[in-house]
């Protein structure tokens, strides 16, 4: 199997299927630092990244923003002193799609 971060994201329509429970467990094993959370009734992937200062955290969030724009798939990013919290989910389906796991793996590589 191709490394998760090297897999291609697919165009996601509003009727795209969410990942199944078994798929989710397999995909989560490839991104062990991420947690599966519910936010406003939608399942999401979340990870907190830590840094030495605000400038490093800001530089990281800019890299994540560039990645998101290149894939036209945008996360929630919270920038704070010494940390950045990133949440991936697919807005169109109100939950998790394989694309979210791919983008989480790519975000790990930026870190």
UniProtKB/TrEMBL annotation:
TM region(s), chain numbering: none
BP-aspect Gene Ontology terms: tetrahydrobiopterin biosynthetic process
Reactions performed catalytically: (4aS,6R)-4a-hydroxy-L-erythro-5,6,7,8-tetrahydrobiopterin = (6R)-L-erythro-6,7-dihydrobiopterin + H2O
GO MF annotations, alphabetized: 4-alpha-hydroxytetrahydrobiopterin dehydratase activity
Pfam family, one: Pterin_4a
Enzyme class, spelled out: lyase
UniProt entry tagged with the keyword Lyase: yes
Keywords in alphabetical order: Lyase
KW Transmembrane helix (keyword) present: no
EC number annotated for this UniProt entry: 4.2.1.96
Family: Belongs to the pterin-4-alpha-carbinolamine dehydratase family.
NCBIfam families: PRK00823.1-1 (NF002016)
Designated name of the protein: Putative pterin-4-alpha-carbinolamine dehydratase
Source lineage: Bacteria, Pseudomonadati, Pseudomonadota, Gammaproteobacteria, Pseudomonadales
């Amino acid at each position: 199997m191709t490394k998760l971060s090297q897999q291609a994201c697919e165009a996601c329509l509003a009727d795209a299927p969410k990942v199944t429970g078994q798929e989710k467990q397999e995909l989560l094993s490839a991104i062990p630092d991420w947690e599966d959370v519910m936010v406003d009734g939608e399942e999401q992937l979340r990870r907190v990244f830590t840094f030495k200062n605000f400038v490093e955290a800001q530089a990281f969030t800019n890299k994540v923003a560039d990645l998101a724009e290149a894939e036209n798939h945008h996360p929630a990013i919270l920038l704070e002193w010494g940390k950045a919290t990133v949440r991936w989910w697919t807005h169109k389906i109100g939950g998790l799609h394989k694309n979210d796991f791919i983008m989480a793996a790519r975000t790990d590589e930026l870190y």
